[in-house]
Amino acid sequence: MPKVYSKIIKNKPYYYLNEQIRINGANKKIQVYLGKNIPNDLAEYCQKLSVKEKYLIKEKLADLFIFDSIFTKEQTCKIENLKIEFKYKIFNLSDAKKEQLWTRYAVQFIFESNAIEGSKLSQNEVNSILQKKYIKKTIERREIKEVKNSIEVFNLIKSDKFKLNQHKIINLHKLLVGGLGINTGYKKVDIVVNNRNTTPAGQVRSEMNGLLNWLKGVKKNKRHPLEIASDFHQRFEHIHPFEDGNGRIGRLLFNFILLQYGYPPILFLYQNRQSYFNALSQADDGRKNKWRWYTIKVYKNSINWFLKEIT
Asked: CA–CA separation, 106 vs 130, rounded Å?
């Protein structure tokens, strides 16, 4: 994140807004001059610094990422520009407004993710549960518990307490489905989803081990974080390690990976669930292009959602 720093020249302070960009193992510094005093509103200076960062990233894009037929240089540049806009918009918010923004996202994410899996709660009802406001007596206790569990796991993956390993993923699932009468731990029976076989129960642990080892290895080859998170999510859903709750856990882990790389999270919408399922299904058949195109489109819309919420 950008920082304000000062230079002392002839016993007088001169202030700058500074950012360090990591490229090929070295930091590249960009900065804008703020003046002899720190302005109350840094929006103008954030805009200037974001322009500098966009230019630098565009010039060094090939040093940062590898490209392919889907994650082309053009598409990658568009994603990076949106990420940079998000970073400086967030930076210029007060702590209270940052908290409010993340709360609005949490409500939206939990509403959409749970609705994809069949929840009938409205967004306002999810918000009431999250904000501990009045909850209608007609709402099923199970639905309320699902939301409360979702809030807890969302906060966990956003914190620095969660690590991506099999033990933690199993515990994350246990937290998500706690009190809902759903079996925890890896599935003990084979599951068919949409007339498709998922990984047999006896092979889940080894497949998950392979997936996590793949993730460790792929971090070194300059693939874009969105592509990494996208592929991880598709492979996780194909394994389908739990008897229930796989979609919600998978979308949480998608966001965990993005956040670990310093990228804003993604938001899959309930209204587009069929496109989401169709794209995943094609990827399961070995045709991953549609899935990757779909996640690029969804991700751009997700960051634009944040930008609109901020402005």
From this structure: 9
pLDDT in tens, 137-193: 888 888 999 999 999 999 999 988 899 999 999 999 999 999 999 999 999 999 888
Distance CA 55, CA 271 (A): 36
DSSP string, 265-310: PP---GGGHHHHHHHHHHHHTT--HHHHHHHHHHHHHHHHHHHHHH
Contact present, 247 and 116 (Cβ < 8 Å)? yes
Residues 169, 174, 179, CA angle at the centre, nearest 5°?
A: 165
Cα-Cα-Cα-Cα dihedral of 146, 147, 153, 155, to 10°? -170
Instruction: Tell whether pTM > 0.90.
Output: yes
CA 18 remoteness from chain centre = 26
Write the CA distances from 21 to 26, 50, 78, 90, 107, integer angstroms. Answer: 8, 12, 18, 17, 32
What is the CA angle 64-216-29, rounded to 5?
A: 30
Strand-pairing partners, residue 30, are: 19
> Which tokens go with 305?
């959602």
Residue 244, CA distances (Å) to 187, 250, 258 in order? 9, 11, 24
Quick check: helix, strand or coil at residue 27?
Answer: strand
> Residue 45 is encoded by which pair of tokens?
């200076």
Chain centroid to CA 78: 17
- How far is Cα 77 from Cα 122, in angstroms, rounded to an integer? 36
